[in-house]
């Protein structure tokens, strides 16, 4: 890996195009290096994972809205919309399928300087592949690049500190991945990366306060914009440049400012793309920092006979967990039984309370309104607070896999003064956890979430196709069709404008 220093440059400064971060990214994308077998194996796992969470979300309102919008743009020979046979323009398939993947906050994650869900690369890159007649080998190469670029940007460039949403790293990664998929030249990819970044920077208000359905739409929008950027670049159109380093660019005005520099690690020429191997999926449908906390609550449940005897619970954890999904966020909505599902899955207090009471977690039942309004749950929920522990923050940011941690320590004080404490650094399903997810676990997750939505024969067909992705010549096989009877259960949506 090569660390590239990235900082603001004055317009009058001699700053050759070949030194721009967008150019370095384009070089990585255009590199014809082969995909390692272990990278390919994990890509297939994540294709299965995305299909699983899409099946579970297909009848939810935001997904239904996105699907209906996409179906308003049919195109023969285009890309498939998840659940139906119709083909649409690639960017609209990316929109619909990206929303389905993101809706339940239940797919893969990578956390470092910034946060990300790199599986968000799959819907737009797959849509581009289907629409252009690419094969499975092309798709795997494109996805390896998408994951690599997003993970590398996340390693070196913090967005949330400056209240910029993490999808600002997704637009460039999708553009780069599609560049690899289609075998585009360096200059075209460079222009597409710049355009994609320019059109996908947004504030983090989508993840603050009363969190709305836009949280699901946000990465789908970034993927859609990235495909449009690639299309324009292929037609010869350029991008603002240098997009990150310019005097009025992203670093100068949206991130650290003219005096700040970043180090972005990128593979050297001929170096295989392995970043996906550092990412991890979710066993539970909740913000990733909640994964280990849910597992910890399940463990603590066995030690506490009477939950009504609890006086208080303090979760000692990292800066991110405390300030984004904990009481450090100062969001009263995170303690409100009437809060949206999107808000509750970003409330570690709610999540810990329900997991402690139930000893389990479910993507629907755990968020049901009647569950959130249960009096004893509300009482327990309001006894929980979080604090930042510098050691957990240090471990969160560590680059050493052996000490990197996303969990925390729970201190439970009972009414009689008894104190119980336990901690868990990483989720059970994490690659270094107690029960790391393997192919069989991804398949089991798919079977569980697809039950009652996708008939068994169609499940079998999809899994067989996914497991031989590299051999496919027809990538529509990676779409899942759902019966009209099931889709008829989706909510009725009013007519829109388009």
Automatic annotation (TrEMBL):
Keywords: Lyase. GO terms for molecular function: 2-methylcitrate dehydratase activity. SUPFAM superfamilies: 2-methylcitrate dehydratase PrpD. Residues 284-467 form the MmgE/PrpD C-terminal domain. InterPro entries: 2-Methylcitrate_Dehydratase, MmgE/PrpD_sf, MmgE/PrpD_sf_1, MmgE/PrpD_sf_2, MmgE_PrpD, MmgE_PrpD_C, MmgE_PrpD_N. Monomer. NCBIfam families: PrpD_hiGCgrampos (NF042438). Belongs to the PrpD family. This is 2-methylcitrate dehydratase.
């Amino acid at each position: 890996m090569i660390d590239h220093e990235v900082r603001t440059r004055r317009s009058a400064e001699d700053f050759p195009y070949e030194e721009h971060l967008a150019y370095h990214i384009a070089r990585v994308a255009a590199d014809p290096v082969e995909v390692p077998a272990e990278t390919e194996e994990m890509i297939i796992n994540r294709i299965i994972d995305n299909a699983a969470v899409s099946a579970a979300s297909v009848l939810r309102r935001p997904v239904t809205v996105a699907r209906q919008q996409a179906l308003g743009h049919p195109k023969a020979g285009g890309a498939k919309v998840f659940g139906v046979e119709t083909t649409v323009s690639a960017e609209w398939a990316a929109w619909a399928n990206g929303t389905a993947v993101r809706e339940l906050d239940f797919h893969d994650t990578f956390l470092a300087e910034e946060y990300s869900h790199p599986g968000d690369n799959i819907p737009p890159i797959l849509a581009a592949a289907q629409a252009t007649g690419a094969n499975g080998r092309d798709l795997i190469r494109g996805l390896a690049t998408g994951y690599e670029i997003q993970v590398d940007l996340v390693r070196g460039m913090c967005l949330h500190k400056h209240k910029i949403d993490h999808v600002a790293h997704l637009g460039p990664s999708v553009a780069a991945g599609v560049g690899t998929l289609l075998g585009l030249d360096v200059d075209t990819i460079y222009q597409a990366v710049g355009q994609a970044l320019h059109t996908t920077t947004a504030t983090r208000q989508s993840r603050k306060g009363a969190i709305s359905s836009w949280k699901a739409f946000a990465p789908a929008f970034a993927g859609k914009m990235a495909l449009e950027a690639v299309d324009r670049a292929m037609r010869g159109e350029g991008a603002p440049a240098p997009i990150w380093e310019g005097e009025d660019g992203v670093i100068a005005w949206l991130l650290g400012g003219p005096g700040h520099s970043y180090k972005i690690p990128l593979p050297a020429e001929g170096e295989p793309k392995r970043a996906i191997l550092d990412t991890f999926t979710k066993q539970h449908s909740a913000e990733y920092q909640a994964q280990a906390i849910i597992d910890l609550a399940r463990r603590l449940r066995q030690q506490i006979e009477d939950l009504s005897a609890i006086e208080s619970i303090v979760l000692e954890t990292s800066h991110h967990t405390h300030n984004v999904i904990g009481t450090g966020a100062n969001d009263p909505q995170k303690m409100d039984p009437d809060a949206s599902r999107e808000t509750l899955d970003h409330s570690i207090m709610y999540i810990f309370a329900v997991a402690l009471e139930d000893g389990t977690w479910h993507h629907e039942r755990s968020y049901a309104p009647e569950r959130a309004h249960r009096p004893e749950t509300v009482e327990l929920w309001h006894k929980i607070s979080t604090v930042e522990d510098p050691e957990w923050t240090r471990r969160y940011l560590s680059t050493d896999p052996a000490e990197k941690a996303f969990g925390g320590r729970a201190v439970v004080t009972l009414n009689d003064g008894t104190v119980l404490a336990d901690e868990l650094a990483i989720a059970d399903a994490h690659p270094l956890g107690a029960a790391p997810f393997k192919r069989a676990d991804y398949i089991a997750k798919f079977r569980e979430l697809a039950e009652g939505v996708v008939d068994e024969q169609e499940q079998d067909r999809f899994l067989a196709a996914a497991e031989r992705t590299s051999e496919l010549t027809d990538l529509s096989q990676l779409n899942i069709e759902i019966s009209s009877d099931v889709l008829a259960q989706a909510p009725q949506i009013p007519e829109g404008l388009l």
